[in-house]
Design a protein that fits this description.
about 0% helix
Length: about 80
């Protein structure tokens, strides 16, 4: 999975190497373990490309966790 831009400001784009064709769960957690965002995408579609709007968050590092079916991805992102 690719995540860009990183660092991000208002939004992130997620790109999967294969189309998931199923529900995708996205969670954003602060490095202190604080849960800051959870989004469910009911139908991931055929292209495997998603735009994720980010709420106003303090600048810093976060963990982005994505679950697509049986696959799990974790990426460190920076918000400016």
């Amino acid at each position: 999975m690719k995540v860009f831009p990183n660092p991000a400001r208002e939004q992130l784009f997620l790109s999967f190497p294969y189309p998931p064709h199923k529900a995708v769960q996205v969670a954003l957690t602060g490095m202190d373990g604080r849960h800051v965002l959870s989004v469910g995408i009911p139908d991931a579609g055929a292209d495997g490309f998603f735009r994720l709007a980010l709420p106003e968050l303090p600048a810093g590092a976060y963990l982005l966790r994505v679950t697509a079916g049986e696959r799990h991805f974790t990426r460190r992102i920076v918000i400016r």
